[in-house]
Design a protein that fits this description.
Length: about 60
């Protein structure tokens, strides 16, 4: 496993808190199948002919 020398505790509590909020919001959006992520992927589909990279419709 690659070790870049940076651990979770090398970040401030504020950064860890914001990352937790961001990841939770992203997960809630994916589970609900609506919201900003859905709109973003649909817009990419319309504009470029494919959804965002590394994302596939179920």
């Amino acid at each position: 496993m690659l070790n870049c020398g940076v651990g979770l505790w090398d970040y401030s509590p504020k950064v860890i808190h914001q990352a937790a909020i961001t990841l939770t919001s992203y997960l809630e959006d994916i589970v609900a199948d609506s919201g900003p992520w859905r709109m973003f992927s649909q817009l990419c589909q319309q504009m470029y002919g494919h959804p965002v990279p590394m994302y596939h419709e179920p």
